[in-house]
Design goal:
Bound molecules: glycine
Helix content: 25-40%
Structural class: alpha+beta
CATH architecture: 4-Layer Sandwich
Order of helices and strands: EHHEEHEHHHEEEEHHHEEEE
Number of strands: 12
Number of domains: 1
CATH topology: Glutamine Phosphoribosylpyrophosphate, subunit 1, domain 1
Amino acid sequence: MKKEPKIIVHGGAWEIPLEEQENHIKGCYNAVQAVWSDLQKGMPAHEAVCTAIRVLETDETFDAGKGGVLRANGTVELDAAIMVGKSHSFASVMNIKEYMNPIDIARALLDEDFSILCGSGAEAFAQEKGFPRISNSELIVEREKKRFATLKQENKYSLAEAFMPHGTVGAVVYDTEGNLAAGTSTGGVPLAPSGRIGDTPLPGAGTYCDNTTGGASATGFGEAILRVLFTRTACDFLREYSPMESAKRAVEILHDITHSFAGIILINSKGEYGLAYNTTHLARAYVDAKGDIIATI
Ligand code: GLY
């Protein structure tokens, strides 16, 4: 029997400034709207995740794709991951500098024998697959140039503090076959060294999916998230608890152990939503039981 599909996306957990709030809400709404009709017609979960994240990466509001934060060397480096709940297939790419949509490269890697590619190897794979190459400067926006200049001037800068202005994106989908998929994409944290990897492209840290429990995507300070295998922890809680309670418990564990901040979205094996965050906002959108797209922070 066909299932009622579900989709939830996020656009980062932090204190989103007033002047940026509308764009975050609109961006999340657009990502859900871009896939909702195809999802109802039977689009597989992993394709829907990829399409929704591509919309978020192309929207310069978020710290993913165009609009990614600048590293210490003034460049943008992108990471993305996707995981399929039925097969447990996982693929991710790291330190992408010359492609707008790293989620598409991760999606292509799902069909290969290797799971994770980084740097020049990931970009060579993207080129082989025919993805359009762009210059790194095309990923850089004025907002991030200004942030970079300000942070460079501040001697008190630390990676943990710099995480706060930050908008990793992600999506979790439950399709008409009852299959789950999850994906996440990020530009990382401002002023991080070139080559730094956070939680996003690591399975069980920023991205996790298992049809028997659920799928989850995280946002927040990667160095903390990966220490508690945040998304895997939340999905394990789904064996015992509701999606909302599971997300809440995972955030509590993250905060107890690392004293850090994050947000998480998830869907369980029955197609029920969960989310939690210990930041001021979590930009997100989902389709409710009436079929309406709800976007909020
Ligand atoms: N959560 C994204 C990162 O820390 O890279």
